[in-house]
Design brief:
heterodimer, A: alpha/beta, Rossmann fold, nine-stranded mixed sheet, globular, B: alpha+beta, seven-stranded mixed sheet, 28 strands
Chain lengths: 233, 751
């Protein structure tokens, strides 16, 4: 099983994602250069965090034009698993693979800390190894992580069970105080209509190794692995 | 006839004596471009002309030191074939003029110093000093500077992808007009893959890579070598503008290009830009460099040779490649979308020769710019006495008020939580940070080798202004103690010396005393200084900063799954004060009262400093470190926290601020004055929380090391209490104290 970790100029969580897949999940990983249009041989694609193309204009706005994103779209259309983390989520939103937008944090400051999120649906290739309502302690690190979408989109996400994660407090309540960036409905991660593309602001690769304090993020990669092996619940 | 007027010469920051030295060494009058080149290399910032003589007193050699001062960064061996490069540098002056860009480019500059040697940066820390946030006159400006500096560091470090893992942040009125921004960076590499900033091999191509040259930052180094006055606003164009994205690409491209084997030498363009990199590379290589400016990638048209040579545009590097293998270098830089252009060749004549479209515009011996720069033995007198020796009487009848002072201290700017700052820094990227900001020392694991690195930055202007020699020693002692608390053995140090105008004998005296104190302590604690930086002229309108030597020390931690934390974990544990209640407290009462005058209590509760810094016994201190390492590394304690600002009371409170919500009940029996027991900042002390069964072993290690270790209470649920001689002075809920401590900084910045 092979995960492709896309490397844009300015990606900086590529090494971390690569390490989490190889060392913590125990699967193969390869770095995919942003000019590559060839994703053959990959079972899943991961768009990592960072500042692709310097986040010039808007986070993800330039990355959407890169050759690799064209290939990622094709990969997703054919049913491949695609996960975008942090800047990767922003790229997925900008390139139209996921709805809505990620705008500046409400307090206008970058924020890096461990937050709590809860799994809203375990019915996805990225969460099937977890339980619905399971709380996860996972770090965030972003300046533009406020999820925004129009009412209709929000309702659609809700009705189609496509909200993957919401920010919650330490006792698993989805409350405003637990919302670190102003995201509508405390949304921390969403799925596409076909459920094979996930975008999330929290960094599961930073919570995949016991040395880092939490291994709660590993469940995302384990779910993907189970899906790909056909052993998902 | 002379074309350079006296006015022009002094505007370049040169004295007429220095100009005569130029005439003498050059044997002719310099051109305007040469004057610019020489003046910037002879500036205090680049030449260390006031400090060089005294810096020689610092120890620089040690078993693990692979590269000492004089290179872009110091390098130490951490075993298994791995090495780390680290250094601290100031960006004080630019951060006052333009806080965001000043601080951002400070981080950018120190990162380049690390990766120019071939190391990948894996950690950054920052030592910050600002003016008081609540000052009625300057508070608004000071708050603006804090916000700007923090967002500048956040912007640059986060985008570059290096974790900012720790640091310190202190507020004193003296830093209002002269904030200090000292940035530390550390990188890792194989020890047989070190690159140096030297030009060797006549005929080898000199290649310029990275950002284009613009007009920003011209004379930045000279600006950093003078005092500020009312016209400082006009110096804003001297501040460089940074682009962390470009730096990230430059990092990846440089490290990749180094792998090709085609690179002979490489140096970043920092202060004094192209000038400094060309003459220093030539100087170190015993060669010369000839460049033609027409090949230099430029951001705008019509730049003069003077401007191109003095520009401090960021994110640029100079590479000497092996002739015939240039293409390998170009290919890598093209892949990363960066400019790379051959701008000249290495020569054998020891000269820096600058041409503009073939015409020579400057030709100066490298030696004149480097080793032959002026060296001053500036006169020094005694450090000035800025506070009275004896302080006001402290009313001991109000013992409970003494307890309540803890609330004041916990909310005070130096002691309160710096969460508002460090949450804006990505301190986790690269997934190595096993202990991030908020602890005594930051700890990062090295995935490649079976080892972790601990690091800490410490400085103490309050102590140094009262006694620079003792203050500098105390800073080194505290830094080593911070490492000992996480079980680390200190290996080597870097320093940043922030002082006022060295032309004033009493300021020069502070500098000399601090260097000598630091040297003594670094020898004692076996932490050689492998490099660093001196920042002088930190004065605005004659109002100087506290003398502020900052030291950064790196140590090794072995065999640890999780680094030792400062927080209590369980109720019912014994509290052991390793080092003793008040070590070195012998002596007359008046003497002890004097040493209390340097405390946070004096500053925040009494309202002003007096007296002297606490007394340090370096032998005893070192034994405390040894005991701490042994206790921590054998897993005998659940928490360990060093006592510093605010003494025992503050340390106990901070140890209570963990997720567990466990507090402490401290019961003391002593003849010593209560305010000393609670708030005296004696060094050599570490607070431990120990399970009953381990207590015997802890005490026996302390005994072996010849260190006192009284049991001073126990951990309890939810509350923090102090009882002295059976009188309960303080009893509060940990939650309420925590709220006060954690929100204080944000509150002061919001107003």
């Amino acid at each position: 099983m092979k995960f492709g970790v896309v490397l844009f100029p300015g990606s900086n969580c590529d090494h971390d994602a690569y390490y989490a897949v190889q060392a913590n999940l125990g699967e193969d990983a390869a770095l995919i250069w942003h000019e590559s249009e060839d994703l053959s041989g990959l079972d899943a694609v991961l768009l990592p965090g960072g500042f692709s193309y310097g986040d010039y204009l808007r986070p993800g706005a330039i990355a959407r034009f890169s050759p690799v994103v064209t290939a990622v779209k094709k990969f997703a259309r054919s049913g491949g698993l695609v996960i975008g983390i942090c800047n990767g989520f922003q790229v997925l939103v900008e390139s139209g693979l996921l709805p809505g937008a990620l705008i500046r944090n409400r307090n206008l400051r970058f924020v890096c800390k461990t937050v709590h999120i809860k799994v809203v649906t375990s019915d996805s290739p990225f969460t099937n190894a977890s339980k619905t309502n399971q709380p996860l302690a996972i770090p965030i690190a972003h300046g533009d992580g406020c999820y925004y979408a129009d009412k209709m989109t929000l309702r659609q996400l809700e009705n189609e069970d496509r909200v993957a994660f919401r920010y919650c407090d330490t006792v698993n309540r989805v409350v405003e105080e637990a919302n670190p960036n102003g995201s509508l409905d405390n949304i921390a991660g969403i799925l596409n209509e076909e459920r094979n593309v996930l975008g999330m602001m929290p960094h599961p690769e930073r919570a995949s190794d016991s040395a880092m304090g939490s291994t709660d993020g590993l469940v995302v990669f384990q779910s993907m692995k189970a899906t790909l092996m056909g052993t998902a619940r | 006839m002379s074309t350079l007027t006296t006015d022009l010469i002094t505007k370049h920051g040169l004295t007429m004596d220095e100009y005569d030295r130029i005439l003498d060494r050059l044997g002719r009058e310099p051109t305007l471009t040469e004057l610019g080149i020489i003046s910037v290399m002879w500036s205090e910032h680049c030449s260390y002309k006031s400090s060089r003589l005294h810096l020689k007193k610092l120890p620089t050699e040690g078993e693990s030191v692979l590269v000492g001062p004089g290179e872009n960064a110091g390098i130490i061996d951490i075993g298994d074939g791995w090495a780390v490069a680290f250094k601290i540098e100031s960006h004080n002056h630019p951060s006052f003029i333009e806080p965001f860009q000043g601080a951002a480019t400070g981080v950018g500059g120190i990162l380049r110093d690390i990766f120019t040697m071939g190391a990948r940066p894996i950690a950054v820390m920052d030592s910050l000093r600002f003016g008081m946030l609540d000052d009625s006159k300057t508070g608004i400006r000071n708050r603006h500077i804090v916000r700007g500096v923090v967002s500048g560091i956040s912007h640059y470090g986060n985008c570059f992808g290096v974790p900012t893992v720790g640091g310190e942040c202190i507020f004193e009125s003296g830093y209002g007009g002269n904030p200090l921004v000292n940035a530390f960076a550390l990188g890792i590499f194989r020890k047989d893959k070190i690159f140096f900033g030297q030009a060797s091999g006549s005929g080898n191509p000199v290649i310029y890579v990275g950002a284009k040259t613009g007009k920003d930052g011209i004379h930045g180094a000279s600006m950093a070598s003078s005092e500020f006055d009312e016209q400082s606003e006009e110096k804003r164009p001297n501040v460089q503008v940074g682009d962390p994205f470009l730096e990230k690409l430059l990092l990846e491209a440089c490290l990749e290009a180094m792998q090709t084997g085609a690179i002979e030498g490489i140096q970043d363009m920092g202060a004094a830009g192209l000038t400094c990199s060309t003459c220093e590379m030539g100087g170190r290589g015993g060669s010369g460099i000839e460049i033609d400016l027409k090949y230099v990638p430029q951001r705008e048209v019509g730049m003069t040779p003077y401007e191109i040579m003095l520009s401090e545009s960021q994110e640029r590097m100079l590479i000497v490649a092996k002739r015939g293998r240039e293409k390998e270098v170009y290919d890598v830089f093209r892949k990363w979308g960066l400019d790379a252009a051959e701008i000249g060749v290495v020569t054998g004549d020891g000269l820096l020769r600058v041409k503009d479209r073939g015409e020579v515009v400057a030709e100066v011996p490298n030696s004149l710019l480097t080793d032959d720069a002026p060296l001053y033995d500036r006169p020094f007198s005694q450090p000035p006495r800025v506070a009275p020796l004896d302080g006001p009487e402290i009313d001991l009848s109000k013992n409970t008020a003494l307890g309540d002072s803890l609330v004041t201290l916990l909310g005070s700017p130096d002691i309160c939580s710096k969460q508002w700052i460090f949450e804006q820094y990505d301190h986790m990227v690269r997934t190595n940070t096993t202990s991030g900001p908020g602890g005594d020392a930051a700890v990062i694991r090295i995935k490649e080798a079976d080892v972790s690195l601990a690091m800490s930055l410490d400085g103490n202007g309050r102590f140094c202004v009262l006694d620079p020699r003792e203050g500098a020693k105390l800073a080194v002692a505290e830094c080593c103690r911070n490492l000992a608390v996480v079980g680390a053995q200190p290996i080597a140090a870097t320093n940043c010396l922030n002082f006022g105008n060295p032309e004033r004998p009493e300021i020069m005296a502070q500098l000399v005393e601090a260097i000598e104190g630091m040297a003594e302590a670094c020898i004692h604690f076996e932490t050689p200084i492998t490099g660093g930086n001196v920042s002088l002229y930190n004065e605005t309108l004659g109002d100087g900063i506290y003398p502020t030597p900052v030291v950064g020390i790196v140590g090794l931690v072995r065999n640890q799954d999780k680094p030792m934390g400062i927080h209590f974990r369980q109720a019912g544990r014994k509290l052991v004060l390793l080092g003793g209640l008040l070590p070195n407290a012998t002596g007359r009462k008046a003497q002890a009262e004097r040493r209390f005058g340097s405390s946070q209590y004096a500053k925040m509760v009494v309202g002003g400093l007096w007296g002297l810094p606490p007394k340090l016994d370096m032998d005893y201190e070192k034994r405390v470190h040894e005991a701490s390492r042994r206790i921590v590394n054998t897993g005998l304690t659940e928490s360990a926290h060093d006592l510093s600002d605010g003494g025992l009371a503050v340390a106990a409170a901070k140890s209570s601020f963990g997720l567990s919500g466990v507090g402490a009940s401290i019961e003391l029996q002593s003849e010593l004055p209560v305010h000393h027991l609670l708030y005296y900042e004696a060094p050599s002390r570490i607070l431990l929380s120990v399970v009953e069964e381990a207590l015997g072993d802890v005490l026996s290690i302390a005994n072996d090391c010849g260190v006192e270790a009284p049991v001073i209470g126990k951990t309890i649920e939810e509350r923090l209490t102090f009882t002295v001689n059976r009188e309960k002075l303080f009893d509060r809920s940990v939650d309420a104290l925590y709220e006060h401590w954690t929100n204080s900084l944000e509150r002061s910045l919001a107003t």
